[in-house]
Amino acid sequence: CVENQPPQILAGKTITITAGPTREPLDPVRFISNHSSGKMGYALAEAALLLGANVNLISGPVTIKAPIGANLINIESAEQLLNEALVYAPQSDAFIGCAAVADYRAGEVATQKMKKQGDELTLTLVKNPDVIAAVANIEKNRPYTVGFAAETQNVESYAKGKLVNKNLDMICANDVSQSGLGFNSDQNALTLYWQNKQLELPVSSKSTIALKVIEQLAKHL
Ligand code: CTP
Ligand code: CA
């Protein structure tokens, strides 16, 4: 319905969004992952589409449907996410890292199903690549780069630290100590930080919050 269409402030712009969890395999039937539902990333994709952007949605395994019109790229592991991010980021005006990337993966992935043995099992994990930092440090055609930070304490200092250390342009901080907000919820509240300013987005539905985040982002493109 054209009558209700919001101003197409992102017409001609391409936004790449990562969403959902990653899965880090242990053997052919097992993995390490987290509770990310993908709802926030998918809401951002929908908001960007609504404002006229071309949207690439690089997504880990989730149960929700991608918004119509998004170019969905399915990934499982952090390494696969990095590969796709480095393909799409240089073709994008903005990149939003909303995926809950597993910080570690198995040092060795067993080629056969692991058999149960003693009373204890020790796994050696190795650090995953930092996808958003890699994107933010692309030398040619670097997109405007936005990260997320889900924190249970010291939200402001941790989020600002990530903004600086990862070389981001903007970070959306999520206080996940408040029950019912953030992970796997339909509601969220965020504080947006740039190097020299900040903006509070009070509790509302993930779709309302997503639209506000995308509108803020659009001002910088
Ligand atoms: N991120 C990423 N690659 C990783 C880890 C995180 O791209 N290997 C991105 C997330 O998508 C998010 C931002 O970095 O946009 C912050 O993620 P977060 O988990 O809060 O930060 P970490 O740097 O992993 O620090 P920690 O988990 O120790 O707080
Ligand atoms: Ca992390």
TrEMBL record:
One of its GO terms (molecular function) is phosphopantothenate--cysteine ligase activity. The keyword Transcription regulation does not apply. Residues 15-221 are annotated as: Phosphopantothenate--cysteine ligase. It catalyses: (R)-4'-phosphopantothenate + L-cysteine + CTP = N-[(R)-4-phosphopantothenoyl]-L-cysteine + CMP + diphosphate + H(+); N-[(R)-4-phosphopantothenoyl]-L-cysteine + H(+) = (R)-4'-phosphopantetheine + CO2. CTP binds at residues 97-99, 103, 113, 129-132, 148, 162, 166. Its EC number is 4.1.1.36, 6.3.2.5. Pathway: Cofactor biosynthesis; coenzyme A biosynthesis; CoA from (R)-pantothenate: step 3/5; Cofactor biosynthesis; coenzyme A biosynthesis; CoA from (R)-pantothenate: step 2/5. Binds 1 FMN per subunit. It comes from the Bacteria. Transmembrane segments: none annotated. Residues 10-219 form the DNA/pantothenate metabolism flavoprotein C-terminal domain. In the N-terminal section; belongs to the HFCD (homo-oligomeric flavin containing Cys decarboxylase) superfamily. This is Coenzyme A biosynthesis bifunctional protein CoaBC. The lineage of its organism: Bacteria, Pseudomonadati, Pseudomonadota, Gammaproteobacteria, Alteromonadales. The chain holds residues 177 to 397 of 397 of the full protein.
